[in-house]
Write a structure and sequence with these properties.
With about 260 residues, this protein is mainly α. The chain has helices at about 5-35, 35-40, 45-55, 55-70, 75-80, 80-85, 85-90, 100-105, 110-120, 140-145, 155-165, 185-195, 220, 230-240, 245-259; strands spanning about 210-215, 225-230. Strands 1-2 form a two-stranded antiparallel sheet. The longest helix is centred in the N-terminal third of the chain and has 32 residues, at about 5-35.
Length: about 260
């Protein structure tokens, strides 16, 4: 067996393992409700999940909590066995029509789904606080505390320090992923990167811009005049935001332009 053949087998078996694990996890709430684990001699639902399905304690807790949130969303609950608990959990608390949420978890990647959920909750990208853990010695800790003024947080201290750091020279922005069929001219790409400093152009999003989006469809307008530099998640959302009617309208305009 060659390395490539071995790798393909790993990919195949891994995909199958994820599929069946999701199906097993989706059954856990019903097993708990019926007390089936006790009937079969297991001390807890956690022991049942670990020994029968190889599912960790944290995943069991997650699916049990999620099951309560989805009591009035049976269709979304069914998606657990298809896409897993992590994607469904992202949208479980959103006040949206269930069919729309089902479509989102089916079509969007998890990063794009998280962006969608944040924007629905009114959280502007880049404003949410994140926990960053790292070790420092006593000397560095004392210096940081000296820099921390009254009423300030360590986040404020880090912002000051970063603002005073010299910018690295000759650092090129990450190259945007271009459409294979309609790449934007190099000059246009340079202008986009310069305008947003290589970041996603959505206000508040500080992720690297990796996708070039045509606001005006190339097939219709044959123009690179209106472009956006977006991160992968916001690029997905741009295309997902079109309604079925919009897509049909674009299709007919395209046909009229081409024929």
């Amino acid at each position: 067996m060659t390395n490539n053949e071995l790798y393909k087998l790993c990919q195949e078996y891994g995909a199958k393992a994820r599929k069946w694990k999701n199906k097993f996890i989706a059954l856990i709430p019903e097993v708990a409700k019926r007390g089936l684990h006790k009937q079969k001699g297991f001390e807890s639902i956690y022991e049942f999940a670990a020994k029968v399905g190889g599912v960790a304690h944290g995943a069991v807790e997650s699916v049990l909590r999620l099951d309560k949130k989805l009591e009035d969303k049976p269709k979304l609950k069914q998606m657990i066995e298809k896409v897993g608990i992590n994607k469904v959990r992202v949208v479980a608390n959103l006040d949206k029509k269930e069919d729309e949420l089902v479509e989102k978890v089916q079509t969007l990647t998890k990063p794009a789904l998280e962006l969608f959920a944040k924007e629905e909750r009114g959280i502007r990208p880049g404003t949410e606080m994140k926990i960053l853990s790292f070790h420092v010695d006593e000397e560095v800790e004392l210096e940081l505390r000296k820099l921390k003024g009254k009423g300030e947080t360590f986040n404020d201290v880090m912002k000051k320090l970063l603002a005073n750091m010299p910018k690295p020279k000759n650092v090129k922005s990450r190259k945007a992923k271009e459409s294979k069929s309609r790449p934007a001219p190099a000059q246009k790409r340079r202008e986009l990167f310069s305008k947003t400093n290589g970041k996603c152009s959505v206000p508040g999003c500080n992720k690297p811009g990796t996708e070039i989006h045509h606001k005006k469809t190339w097939a219709i307008f044959k123009s690179h005049d209106e472009l956006e530099l977006l991160c992968k998640g916001h690029h997905e959302l741009r295309h997902q935001s079109e309604s079925t009617i919009d897509q049909k309208f674009r299709f007919y305009k395209m046909q009229a332009a081409l024929f």
